[in-house]
Amino acid sequence: MAQINVNNLTFYYEGSFDAIFEQVSFSVDTAWKLGLVGRNGKGKTTFLNLLLGKYEYKGSITSSTVFDYFPYPMKPEYWVQPAIGFAEELKAGVEQWRILCELSLLGLDGSALYRPFGTLSFGERMKILLAILFSGEHDFLLIDEPTNHLDQKSREIVKAYLAGKKGFILVSHDRDFLDACIDHVLVLNRHSIEVQAGNFSSWWENKSRKDAFAKMENEKHRKEIAKLKEASLRARRWADKNEDSKIGFDPRKEPDRNIATRAYIGAKTKKMQSHVKQMEVRISKEIEEKEGLLVDIESPADLKIMPLKHNKRTFLSVEQYGLYYRDGAEPLFKGLGFEVNQGDRVFLNGGNGCGKSSLMKMILHKAKGEEKPVNLEEEGTLRLASGLVLSYINQDTGFLNGSIKDFCRVRNLDESLFCAILRQLDMERIQFGKKLEDFSEGQKKKVLIGASLLTPAHLYLWDEPLNYIDVFSRIQIETLLLAFKPTMLIVEHDVKFQQQIATKTIEFSEYSGIMNVSGITSHQGK
What we know:
Blueprint: E1 3-11, E2 21-29, E3 33-38, H1 44-51, E4 58-62, E5 66-70, H2 83-90, H3 96-105, H4 122-133, E6 139-144, H5 152-163, E7 168-171, H6 175-181, E8 184-188, E9 193-197, H7 200-244, H8 261-290, E10 314-325, E11 333-341, E12 345-349, H9 356-368, E13 376-384, E14 390-393, H10 404-411, H11 415-424, H12 441-453, E15 459-463, H13 471-484, E16 487-491, H14 495-501, E17 504-511, E18 514-522
Parallel strand pairs: 3-7, 3-8, 5-6, 6-7, 12-16, 12-17, 14-15, 15-16
Antiparallel strand pairs: 1-2, 1-4, 8-9, 10-11, 10-13, 17-18
Helix pairs in contact: 3-4, 5-6, 7-8
């Protein structure tokens, strides 16, 4: 198989003082199933664009392979056309029978190719575009976050599909998804790049061991440096004291001393000063040798959340509840029943379009004492404890615009504290001068998460909070939630995150075209 060779790659965005890549060199094989891992803003999508030749750079990237990128850019006119009509524009030379074969592997009926693209569900669109992507021959595929906004069922299908393929780079922050799909990892560390065989979990285990060893070595180094500095300081004081005693003395206190001893004291002081100098050089050398030891260690800051206490045990009670659109023939769901008690972290599981987000929005409207959305009707009972304060993360980030100062003023947030939280979520200070609409999707999500963490609340409603959020920040947020145990109602399809955080899960399933609650599972020991 062909190799992709990167030699001395250096790339800056115009107007930026920081390099995205600087003197980077590595090689990967085009037969690999390669997972690309790194913090938000570390250059994952940028690297894919460099492979595609979209930017100028210093150094070299050489390969004999042809690259194709997912997701495809979608023109406005595509939304009213069937996918079969524009597939050739997305991938030159693509053949219809190949697309149909790939669709069968993705569990989607071929008739979806001939329906207007805009009328398809999000999952159906994603599967069609993936089928087009894999319908070529000998291409090396660059797949950028294919699971965002996909429900768990669709993720499982795409996961199984990619597990049977090879010859791609996959950018994803979903640990379970990466573990199932890749056999090598390309990691953009803080100050280096590494390539390693295995999946995400094996790399993370190796990294944790290396980090622990590096921290142990660094602690030993610090103790050695502290001892050297103490000895150097002590010798410096002795030398300075002797230097001061060269001139002037009291004959009554020092009867054995005379003018002739000045030369002796001077020579002794000179020797001591030389010894001090050698110690200082040794300390500098020690520091230089150890410099960079911890530069790639992920030491995320400990985040904090400020949940409010309430005198009621039950925050939310739902009985025989249903929602439906006023002009719709069937409800989104019906017969829903569950409670959210103080300390619960309840996850809502179900397919796209089953009404999870609509339920959250209805809860939000009731908590604020607002009228329900004009297009929604309800049945059954949804009760909230009186005086309940909610903190909400919307799955959509399209409404974010203006400066951070404007955002904080509208949300009544302390700007300095808010920026401190963003820094703890590993957002660079240089980003704070940008408009929110110019942030990456991951950075926008961190803005919403930061605002929620800074808002004291009884109940936290988080609707797909982790879309586009890097894996290190996900682990950081897990640690926070397990430490502070806020009461939450969450929609999130990251399996690992849910396994770590959930105290209860509500499963929606389809029966006769209507979503019903198929199960409520409590999780012990969280």
